[in-house]
Design brief:
Alpha-D-Glucose-1,6-Bisphosphate, Chain A, domain 3, TATA-Binding Protein, seven-stranded mixed sheet, seven-stranded antiparallel sheet, 19 helices, 27 strands, binds alpha-D-glucose-1-phosphate-6-vanadate, binds cobalt (II) ion
Length: 543
């Protein structure tokens, strides 16, 4: 039994994107592909000898094999202990919490989030640092650089490890501790939220549904919603984790959570519906026949959050990704707390949370979170909403409409053109960039362009800068169109177009979002030539 050093040759495509390295399962199944990336992570880190690593994934196809490999590599590289979820399963927010709670050196999350799973689906790997959050770009860039020059990796000779039973075993000198994936996370939720009040709400006949979409949140939701909060059995839909996510696309939005949506729009619809994604960090919140945009959801938490025990201390600030709507900005302004605008991806929130500059964070892509961990957190958002509803004793729709009444409504939509030709997508973006100077002052459909630019960001805490984070077209009336290319896809390019309009007039706040944004949708096509470049007549997904 010993450390083996294996000779390898580099791959040139191991650049982490918005959230780790995501590729087709078949790419990860190539000999040494995973090993090279994992060794590149370890070679980039320093002084972890004898320390603890947290390890788990969303349960998708290839998870177990990858966990087995990573455990043996961690042992050969000198980690002292690995905390791994039973069955190799941990949600992304649970990994973040475990790193923090047990003072781990870092963690590895195996997930491609909502991307489909199975032998022909996607797989992914992400490294999280000691604050529990995704590694910042300085580290992910260093990992990529290393991966292009790697010549060898270290792995312990094959040892049997039983991932299905709680307890300790060893690989070489390293302890492998199999832990309950849910327990610590559920304890944290009990500390943050008023479980007594939520229990009373449910007892009083308030009906809820949660769709785990056959992905990682099933066991978490069952334990928290059904066992601890007393929601009736059957509250959690699709609660069994399957390695192909039941053949579905576990993305909590109106398109992919179609079953839940049908139930929430039925005549006997429950009062509250929610869904989460493959790895448990996203959330969608629905009322009876009512959809809450993720951007409004963040604003609702900022407006009402201090009723939850974990936030009674007050909210010091909020942060949102640039394409997320400015709904929360208006809450921050009125309540006089700071509001930060960051690039897309949770890794940019970490420094603000660590420095105590932000309490809540959110993204338009169904991501909400806070300083309780350093990832977005799907079930946390669901519990936060339930806590607010228990406190306010009103409906989801009323809570959102109250927000609009105070601050105005921000109409919002995102149009995705998935798997388009990569060259065509980058031409579209570069043509937009080339037109910045002439766009300013142009009038389209009665709307004047105030500024066209590309978003860049300098982290106010650590000074790290990043550029090319999305093209923004800002109009004089406050409307915005943002164009970005996705950094999480695994085939072709995905063009995202984010559309936003502020409507202060209460009598104009009840339109369908696509209708209210129709002129901006047309302008986006005029300015970028979407149909012409992509050859598509309509987006693949609208959220
Ligand atoms: C997308 C979302 C982004 C999110 C990221 C990871 O990135 O737009 O807001 O942080 O996914 O979420 P992109 O680069 O494809 O637009 V998850 O739940 O997929 O880890
Ligand atoms: Co996710």
């Amino acid at each position: 039994m010993s450390i083996q050093t294996k000779i390898t040759t580099p791959f040139d495509d191991q650049k982490p994107g918005t959230s780790g390295l995501r590729k087709k399962v078949k790419v990860f199944q190539q000999p040494n592909y995973l090993e090279n990336f994992v060794q590149s992570i370890f070679d980039t880190l320093e002084e972890f000898q004898g320390k603890t690593l947290v390890l788990g994934g969303d349960g998708r196809y290839h998870n177990r094999e990858a966990i087995h490999t990573i455990l043996h590599m961690a042992a050969a590289n000198g980690f002292g202990k690995v905390l791994v979820g039973r069955g190799g399963v941990l949600s992304t927010p649970a990994v973040s919490h475990l790193i923090r709670k047990y003072d781990a050196f870092g963690g590895i999350v195996l997930s491609a989030s909502h991307n489909p799973a199975g032998p022909d689906g996607d797989f992914g790997i992400k490294y999280n640092v000691s604050n529990g959050g995704p590694a910042p770009e300085s580290i992910t860039n260093a990992i990529f650089t290393h991966s292009k020059a790697i010549t060898q990796y270290r792995i312990w000779s094959d040892t049997e490890v039983d991932l299905d039973y709680l307890g300790d075993s060893e690989i070489g000198n390293m302890v492998v501790r199999v832990i309950d994936p849910v327990y610590d996370y559920a304890q944290l939720m009990e500390e943050l939220f008023d479980f007594e009040a939520i229990r009373a709400l449910l007892k009083g006949g308030f009906r809820i549904l949660f769709d785990a979409m056959h992905a990682v949140t099933g066991p978490y939701a069952r334990e928290i919603l059904e066992n601890r909060l007393g929601a009736p059995a059957g509250t959690v839909l699709n609660g069994v984790v399957k390695d192909d996510f039941g053949g579905g696309h576990p993305d909590p939005n109106l398109t992919y959570a179609a079953d839940l949506v049908a139930r929430m729009w039925a005549d006997d619809a429950p009062d509250f519906g929610a869904a989460s994604d493959g790895d448990g960090d996203r959330n969608m919140i629905l009322g009876r026949k009512f959809f809450v945009t993720p951007s409004d959801s963040l604003a609702v938490l900022a407006e009402n959050g201090t009723c939850a025990p974990g936030y009674a201390r007050g909210i010091v600030g909020v942060a949102r990704s640039m394409p997320t709507s400015q709904s929360v900005d208006r809450v921050a302004e009125k309540k006089n707390f700071a509001c930060f605008e960051t690039p897309t991806g949770w890794k940019f929130f970490g420094s603000l949370l660590d420095a105590g500059k932000a309490t809540l964070c959110g993204e338009e892509s169904f991501g909400t979170g806070s300083d309780h961990v350093r990832e977005k957190d799907g079930l946390w958002a669901v519990l936060f909403w339930l806590n607010i509803l228990a406190h306010r004793k009103t409906s989801v729709e009323a809570v959102v409409k109250d927000l609009w009444a105070i601050y105005g409504r921000t109409y919002y939509a995102r149009h995705d053109y998935e798997d388009v030709d990569s060259a065509a997508a980058s031409t579209l973006m570069s043509e937009l960039r080339a037109n910045f100077a002439t766009l300013t002052g142009q009038v389209h459909e009665g709307l004047t362009i105030k500024l066209a630019d590309e978003f860049g960001y300098t982290d106010p805490v650590n000074g790290e800068s990043t550029i090319k984070q999305g093209v923004r077209i800002l109009f004089v009336d406050g409307s915005r169109i943002v164009f970005r290319l996705s950094g999480t896809g695994t085939s072709g390019a995905t063009l995202r177009i984010y559309l936003e309009r502020f409507e202060p007039n209460p009598s104009l706040q009840h339109k369908d979002a696509q209708e209210a944004l129709a002129d901006l949708i047309r302008i986006a096509d005029t300015l970028a030539g979407i149909k012409q470049h992509t050859g598509r007549q309509a987006p693949t997904v609208i959220t």
